[in-house]
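Handout, section B. The chain below has 243 residues.
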Amino acid sequence: MAMKSCRPVTPIHDFLIPALQTLPASTYRSFSHSAPRASRVGAATIAVPPDVNLRLLDPPKRKGIITRVEPPQIIEIEGPLGKASVQLPPFVSYAINEATRKATLSVLDRKARDQREIWGTTRSYLANHILGVSEGHTAILRLVGVGYRATIEPTAITVKPEYPGQQFISLKVGYSHPIELGVPMGVKASTPLPTRILLEGVNKEVVNSFAASIRRWRVPEPYKGKGIFVNEETIKLKAKKIK
């Protein structure tokens, strides 16, 4: 019989033993030193101004359509600047205290993750719409660059109007031709200065989306600091490349 060769066993040094031991899951530490804490946005109350009215509408009934999914309810918000609406999922309930003018939202199960996520999102939508119909949302764009300017025009050459009376923003931001953008419905645009654009509207999402579409034509660059800046946006300048 052939004899098997026995290799000498190399002993493990004492300072390597702690690294090879398996630690329990409770001893592992995360990258963040702050304790995990759930958001409390959904449970926060919403102040309703006296000139804003909220109505809870039942979902519209569809004849001849049978579905297992419960249709969402709708909150209609009406104020001095216009109207807006928010859809409520079936597990979100709405209540308002007429004496204190405070609105609250609640969910069926606070331990369910999907309900907590939609809870805070729905509350933010409702608060934004209440602020929009009472005071309005604004976005200020700054045009930084030599020769950059903007004007509001009643007609456009390269863009067709989407609704009667639509206005257009004409941008001169370094291209060989002016850039024409149609103002969305429900948004009011003005130019207090040739290098400033003021957008006002009831819907915060529409105002910010239109501001982003304008900014996309000249995104701020970090070497000369030129571009279209939205609200308090800033950019850190980089050193010029020297060959």
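Note. The helical segments are 17-20, 113-134, 204-215. Compare this with the example in section A.
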